[in-house]
Amino acid sequence: MDKFYNETLAKLENEIKEFEIEADCSIERIEAVIQLIIKCLFDVKKYILKRGFKNVDEEIRFFKYQKPIIVSKLIYYNAIYKIETRRPYGNKRTKKYFVKELKKLKRFFENNLDFYKYYRSNNSFFDEQFFVRGKHDIRLWLDTFYFEADHRFSTSHDYKVAKIIANDLIHVYLEDRLNNINVKKVSDNSLIWTASKTALTELIYALYSHGAFNNGNTEIKLIAKTFEDAFNIELGDFYHTFMELKARKINRTKFLDRLCEALIKKMDEQDEKQ
């Protein structure tokens, strides 16, 4: 199961990245990406209905962690499509529109606070009710969407997980659009990243691989965007940069190694002064 899922997800992400390299956030590109994700979900559903699961743990892992990653991409791109096609003209009206969209995300968070806490804390005591098919409990934060879904390929809460993941990305997107309108200026007190973009990409992927944010339930794109905003830098195609790092014959983690060396040297110097 894991092999099929990992290969399918990697293929989908590569295809999406190819579209993102070719053009900016155009409506046509978003439409094409949505079709890719729909096709991917169809293939995954066909595989699951034919193969099934070896045990309950495998089923929970799929509906709690694996399926939501793919569905979150569909929710995200569909949301961006709607936002961009409905966006009004004029900076003042557009700013008001984006703020309104951010408030929708906040309402979803507030209305699902208990489940956010459960999911973000990596709890598992309700997993059999939330992420096993046919085990729904109407008292446990059910969405109307669940009753209309195909229960052969859905649980009571896998869509809600996907929504949480997607909303994080949508929030970043809207904040970025607002920042572009506001033309945010870099103050004298701002931190400027003065190492290379490759070095920052290496650091970001290390933090992502370690699961340093949200118990590992955060997409690399969100982490990269946060660093870009924090240091007023554009990483561009950071995935391509990562591929170049992987292709290094020696010293793949050059920047991280130098960080370790610098920190150890600093510690040794302070020990010598004591």
From TrEMBL:
Positions the record marks as coiled coil are: 2-29
Q: Name one Pfam family in it.
A: RteC
Matching InterPro entries: Tet_reg_excision_RteC
- What's the superkingdom here? Bacteria
Q: What is this protein called?
A: RteC protein
Give the UniProt keywords, A-Z: Coiled coil
Organism, scientific name: Epilithonimonas bovis DSM 19482
